[in-house]
Amino acid sequence: MAAASLVHSSLCRPSSFLHQQYHHHRFRTFALSIPFPSSGSPASLFSSLSSGSPQKKSRWAPVAAVLEVGGVKIVKEDVVREDDPTNNVPDTIFSKLGLQLHRRDNHPLGILKNAIYEYFDTNYSGKFVKFDNLSPIVSTKENFDDVLVPADHVSRSYNDTYYVNANTVLRCHTSAHQVELLRQGHNQFLVTGDVYRRDSIDATHYPVFHQMEGVRVFSPDEWQASGLDATSYAAMDLKKSLEGLACHLFGDVEMRWVDTYFPFTNPSFELEIYFQEKWMEVLGCGVTEQEILKRSDRMDNVAWAFGLGLERLAMVLFEIPDIRLFWSTDERFTSQFSEGQLGAKFKPFSKFPPCYKDVSFWISDSFTENNLCEVVRGIAGDLVEEVQLIDNFTNKKGMTSHCYRIAYRSTERSLTDEEINQLQWNVREAMQSKLNVVLR
Ligand code: DAH
């Protein structure tokens, strides 16, 4: 059990300790290594970037096959390679690249990003440099090695991360940019971006979401003057800054610090606030591992870092009940938000009825829930609300059966029986052809 310490801030009330269940968090936990497909292809991602070769047309996604993010050209046929075993990026994910919801000032994610900017601008007289247009395609070195993610960490598996090839991924966190920016000499910076993770399906999980990373570097004269050691000084400054941020976003709330683990920081903490009658994690943070500074040629410095998920916070602040809504282009959603209006409460325009379909099958050794969810999303897209395991048994012969319940529900309209039956039929077909399972 992690220890929690209470916050004694002049802005916010101290709280009493409460136990809390922690939900799954990838950078906090370790798991056994999952073998990768052999790393046959070199990092050849950008080799054909300007070759102008003809693009395959997709029947499902009428998406531009070439796009640009922060000056980097992204070509669909380099990113989606069905015939390449080191690649697991589907069309549905490619179609999100370049949308950059966090750069829209009238979108809840853009409004939240700007509110955080405002906090740092006001309190650090504009010294934090902001990046929100860095390419989400990064090397495994940047995404994992540079931030000390262990070789056997679960986040490196093909089951959890989208690989473009063996050495290139869609970033799974904005921490992927820490070392590059430290190396460039930045001392205070914020990085906002879309991040990508293979995951299960429910109201709070979507394979693309948005994070903001913050880093502040100190030089020896700063902590020496304080009489504190470097780590204590950074931890103290970190806690003060982030408590201020939480108050800026949530008002006068109770807070507490929980000790935790991240590969990139030591010590590591989570900030929780007591909001709407429960403790809620706001962000992860800590004092940057000295090894990261060493790799950035910043041996003499000490630094702190934090990372937060924008959707998590925006869902609470704007009362948005389903993570799919962030992607909605329905005017009844988009018209409810405007620049600078943090916390305008979302008014659901209608709650359409869900439709549940069960599917039972014998699994194979390679079966994973994330793979199933990818197949379901590939067919039903945002019409799928939840995929839930409702039955699981192994028979005398050692065969394991799973039954999943798929909830279909649009956030925008009523679905017809006919449409849902067709989707379910297509899901069953795709499960058989792609997942190596036997339907029952
Ligand atoms: N990268 C972490 C994640 O995605 C979040 C995080 C935690 C970032 C602690 C940090 C940090 O910079 O210090 O879960």
UniProtKB/TrEMBL annotation:
It is an enzyme of class 6 (ligase). One of its GO terms (biological process) is phenylalanyl-tRNA aminoacylation. Residues 112-348 form the Aminoacyl-transfer RNA synthetases class-II family profile domain. GO terms for molecular function: ATP binding; phenylalanine-tRNA ligase activity; tRNA binding. PROSITE patterns: AA_TRNA_LIGASE_II (PS50862), FDX_ACB (PS51447). Its EC number is 6.1.1.20. SUPFAM superfamilies: Anticodon-binding domain of PheRS, Class II aaRS and biotin synthetases. Residues 350-440 form the FDX-ACB domain. GO terms for cellular component: mitochondrial matrix. Keywords: Aminoacyl-tRNA synthetase, ATP-binding, Ligase, Mitochondrion, Nucleotide-binding, Protein biosynthesis, Transit peptide. It comes from the Eukaryota. It is found in: Mitochondrion matrix. The keyword Aminoacyl-tRNA synthetase applies. It catalyses: tRNA(Phe) + L-phenylalanine + ATP = L-phenylalanyl-tRNA(Phe) + AMP + diphosphate + H(+). CDD domains: PheRS_alpha_core. The keyword Transit peptide applies. Gene3D superfamilies: Bira Bifunctional Protein, Domain 2 (3.30.930.10), Ferrodoxin-fold anticodon-binding domain (3.30.70.380). Is responsible for the charging of tRNA(Phe) with phenylalanine in mitochondrial translation. PANTHER family: PHENYLALANINE--TRNA LIGASE, MITOCHONDRIAL, PHENYLALANYL-TRNA SYNTHETASE. Belongs to the class-II aminoacyl-tRNA synthetase family. This is phenylalanine--tRNA ligase. It comes from Spirodela intermedia (Intermediate duckweed).
